[in-house]
Predict the 3D structure of the following.
Amino acid sequence: MSTVKEAVEVEVPVRTAYNQWTMFEEFPRFMEGVEEIRQIDDRHNHWTTKIGGVRREFDTEIVDQLPDERIAWRTISGDTQQKGTVRFERVDDTHTRVELVMDVEPSGPAEKVADVTGTIDRRVKADMRRFKEYIESQGGESGGWRGRIAPGDV
């Protein structure tokens, strides 16, 4: 399993950055290779990705979510194994540090090559830069979910 870590500082308040990140169905706007995310309920999402010509579908579960602080998830089914956390840290009234840490288990030959060559790491870093551009160019979030999910909640 490989760990990828990237942080960006965005020029929006922490509430705005957090709220936008909870709009999972908009991830294809700034995440390369993500074709679609369908939010099933407050905890579950279905992802369709196409990376290097390989299409994958998988489901994720949010295992910890605290508004304006963090969201943690893991895959629960499908072709991809990953888990991660995104943290939001207030820098000042108009700036937020967004840090993403992901553990990814390459599942096929293409993913294993991408892992060894650093492609996964570069893609995540580029996705975070695109999130920065996306949220800053919008001037605000397109929505948000303010609920809390604690580890162990069913």
Observations:
- The mean pLDDT is 89.
- The helical segments are 14-21, 109-116, 119-138.
